[in-house]
Specification:
It is a single chain. The protein is globular and about 40 Å long. Helices cover about 10% and strands about 45% of the residues. It has two domains: about 1-50, no CATH class; about 50-145, no CATH class. A hairpin with an 8-residue loop joins strand 8 (about 90-100) and strand 9. The strands form two sheets. It has an eight-stranded antiparallel β-sheet with strand order 1-2-3-4-10-9-8-7, with no helix packed on it. It has helices at about 5-10, 70-75, 120-125; strands spanning about 15-20, 20-25, 30-35, 40-50, 55-60, 65, 80-90, 90-100, 110-115, 130-135. The longest helix is centred in the N-terminal third of the chain and has 8 residues, at about 5-10. It is mainly beta.
């Protein structure tokens, strides 16, 4: 990811909060988060603030995933290979899907659903409400296909 804190400020304006390590913006119905390391941008996340279907999307290798509309279950049918991770918390759970992409750098694209569902079957049917570009290793406690 070639962006830096200063290039993101040029694109999105001054962050609502942040330091030299991270920045947060709220733009329309989206929450944007950036995490920086010495080499530059390490993670960039986009999360929808409401659960209603939206026009916000991500295109991964020619396959379109809409926030608030597509689910992990419907996204699974769009990608041949992906890894899945389920984290259960006291105030909800998070289920992520990391499709294997043709991108040749060390960047992972993570689709995320967060909600009040405490099992994989239920949460996989909730709308995807965010995505991230990250250099972190793929979390896959629910396996890969």
């Amino acid at each position: 990811m070639n962006d830096t804190r200063s290039t993101l400020i040029q694109k999105f304006g001054q962050p609502e909060s942040g330091t030299t390590q991270f920045s947060n913006w709220t733009i329309s119905n989206l929450s944007l988060y950036a995490n920086y390391q010495k080499q530059g941008l390490a993670q960039f996340s986009v999360n929808q603030l409401s659960t209603s279907p939206s026009k916000h999307l991500i295109n991964i290798d020619g396959k379109t995933v809409y926030l608030g509309k597509d689910t992990i279950k419907t996204a699974t049918s769009k990608f041949k290979h992906a890894c899945f991770n389920f984290d259960e918390g006291r105030q909800g759970s998070t289920y992520t899907m990391t499709p294997k992409t043709a991108v040749k750098n060390k960047l992972n694209i993570v689709l995320e659903t967060t909600g009040d569902a405490y099992d994989v079957k239920a949460i996989s049917n909730l709308p995807i409400n965010g995505f991230s570009f990250t250099q972190d290793a793929v979390a896959s406690n629910s396996g890969c296909k």
